Amino acid sequence: MTLAFVPGFPSSGPRFLGRFLPPVADGVAAAYANSFSQVGDVILDPFGQSPGVAAEALSLDRRVIVACSNPILRLALSLAVHPPALADLKTALTVLGDASVGPGPNARLEVQIKAMYRTTCAECQTPTMADAFDWDSDANEPVEKHYICLHCGGPRDAPTDDEDRALARRFGRSGPDYHFLLSRTVAPDDTDRGQADDTLAVYPARTLAAFAIVLHKLESLDLDRETRRLLAGLLVAAFDATTTLAQDRPKVLAAPRRYRETNVWLALESALGLLAGPPGPERSTTLDALLAGPHQPAIYVHAGPMRDLGARLSPALSSLLLTAVPRPNQAFWTLSATWAGWLWGTDSVEAFRGSLQRRRYDWVWHARALHQTLAAAQPFISDGGRLVCLLAEAEPGFDASLLAGAAGAGYHLRGWSLRADTAEAQLEFEPGQPASVSVRAPDLVRAAREAASALLRARGEPSRWISLHFAAWCGLTANRLVAWDTGDPLGPVNHAIQQATADAAAFDHFSDSATDDPASGPWYLADEANPMAGSPATNRPLADRVEAEVLRNLSSGEAVEEHELMRNVYAALPGALTPGRALVMACLASYGVHDDAGLWRLRPEDALEARAAELQSIQAELRALAGWGGFEVSLSHPQEWRERGQPAYLFAVLSSAMISSFVKAPRGPARRRFLVLPGGRAGLVEHKLRRDPRLRQAFVAGEWSIVKFRQVRRMMTTGGREGLTRATLVPVLTGDPLEAHQQLALPVTREE
């Protein structure tokens, strides 16, 4: 059940359709392709939702088969595996822009589209072109314009004037341009016409008019296939960029009250850099050629669902099913239908008929859809082959849908990892048979409780609901306790998890909300010392283990790349132990420093010998300070100061931020207790206290304070001891505080 999380690389820039497609990090698919397949093997993607998955597999000289019903996604896949050169894109756009739209030397398409956005500079009154207008939907008019004035210089933002508003009113939603676009998607008597109308509503009227002009002209041009492919890519990028949708990851079609209208021609020009890539050979081929010829890298994209592709495949064909699992997205599926219709006519919309008719997608429906596709793909996994599922934007409903669908399709879960703070999950399955009998509800509850408790014991610290829920589902799935129920495939397990976690004798919920929302705060074992009868004790807190692992990687003496360090940390802490990225980075920032090459090195002051000497020095300085104040001092660690034989102060001197063993120790008789640590640990201590409410509660209850090394040193100087008395000792000791920590009214963070 341990799968080391593959962190991947952040994208180098915006992606084509990036706000709709699964945001799988670069390099993740390649890592799994290397782990579970060899050169020449067939890799099958049954969902075809992430062009990067196929592109990375193809780059490793695999043969790739993709099932994809969505023609917009097939276009995206084509552009990913065979990216166009920037020069070719510019040539294609020039051909379109130079197309004649009427008599006269200036009757070029580009000129006509740009004229639709004419305006004047508010400063010098020079005619120019607007890059965009901001609209107030209540007033139904543009209220601000954005442009570059070449006469008086620089970009400008200014209120719209009467001429701007008058020009905008010339474009309506009832003219021939509007009905031309509508007719490209649905027939006049089509029952889905209302949904198509709703989709066009997320575009400003002028934008629709501009696209109608472009598409009219595109139909009449005599273009080769490659030029049409490039123009289709540029147009889809512009279709996406010019909607009024404001969200970064929109799921429904809903325009905000204030929205931006983007110049269509500028959107086409901006798409040039988005689509351009390094030139490479065209590796698309037919299915027969891919399977019959020598095992050369090639890709076949099936224009249909997996269940139709299966009729053309041989059993046990693929060593690896590798896929980014789709999640419901009404906005993208509906827009895809519209864009496909605009580009290729109503026939291309048939694949989306169900999407146009369905207004709501729930997780039960999604589980059934995933089950259907995974079941259709299962016969084509070879002996010893694997299914690897990459989940971006993971959340409880999505995770449960996949696990239920996969279990019902006969896949056995072998390993999983979830990076909760970035909502990324990775799962490894092997083919088998589905569970044949359902499990009694009490047994499900008991198994769910054991799986959730096991996660918390393993991590040794409070964890988010998404982690608890995911661990419970994975535990039940791995033990083959999830039976496929066509009526409600999610209900029995979800109900069992709810019942299990509602047991206050087993779990504490550190909620920061007045609601009963289980995601409102982290969860932990109600009795850490004895989490369950007969259960093993909890492990050291995960945060401390991550810190130790980061320090170990930096202490090799060699500079290390951030990605390499991340992979090492995740390899050392796999499966349920997968830490959040924010925690790893907090540890790295505490101990590491960037060198001139952008690599991470251990801070010189954190070298083993330097820190050991510093710890001895600080201990000695504290003893000297105790003697100056007339206290008796122990030679033990933590260092105890006594007054008239009674404990007064306790000082735990440490070079790390691993404070839990001190903070959670039984409360001693000392009046005040101090954690003495380097200033470089301050941010990491703060991070740990914010993310762990149990640690924070122990810190406050134990009346701990933070003292930095530099403050002890300053107090040992002549100037530092001026005015220092017993009465002022504690205020001076804590005079360089971790500001928020001294009050510790710290919110619970969502990071793990």
Tally of helical runs: 30
Q: What name is given to the CATH topology of the largest domain? A: Rossmann fold
User: Span from first to last CA?
Assistant: 20 Å
Indicate the low-confidence ranges by residue numbers.
Answer: 530-534, 740-750
The main sheet comes to:
7 strands, mixed
Annotated CATH homologous superfamily of the largest domain: Vaccinia Virus protein VP39
Strand proportion, as a percent range, falls in 15-25%
CATH 2nd-level architecture of the largest domain:
3-Layer(aba) Sandwich
Helix content: 40-55%
Task: Show the helix and strand layout.
Layout: H1 28-36, E1 42-45, H2 51-59, E2 63-67, H3 71-81, H4 86-97, H5 109-115, E3 118-120, E4 127-136, E5 141-148, E6 155-159, H6 162-169, H7 176-185, H8 193-200, H9 205-220, H10 225-241, E7 258-262, H11 264-275, H12 287-292, E8 298-302, H13 306-309, E9 318-324, H14 330-344, H15 353-357, H16 363-377, E10 381-392, H17 396-408, E11 411-419, E12 424-431, H18 441-459, H19 465-478, H20 491-501, E13 507-509, E14 523-525, H21 542-554, H22 562-572, H23 581-591, E15 592-594, E16 600-602, H24 608-629, E17 632-633, E18 639-643, E19 646-653, H25 660-663, E20 672-677, H26 682-691, H27 693-701, E21 704-708, H28 709-716, H29 726-733, H30 739-743
Parallel strand pairs: 1-2, 1-9, 2-8, 9-10, 19-20, 20-21
Antiparallel strand pairs: 3-4, 4-5, 4-7, 5-6, 10-12, 11-12, 13-14, 15-16, 17-18, 18-19
Helix pairs in contact: 1-2, 2-3, 3-10, 4-10, 4-11, 7-9, 7-14, 10-11, 16-17, 17-19, 18-19, 18-20, 21-22, 21-23, 23-26, 24-28, 26-27
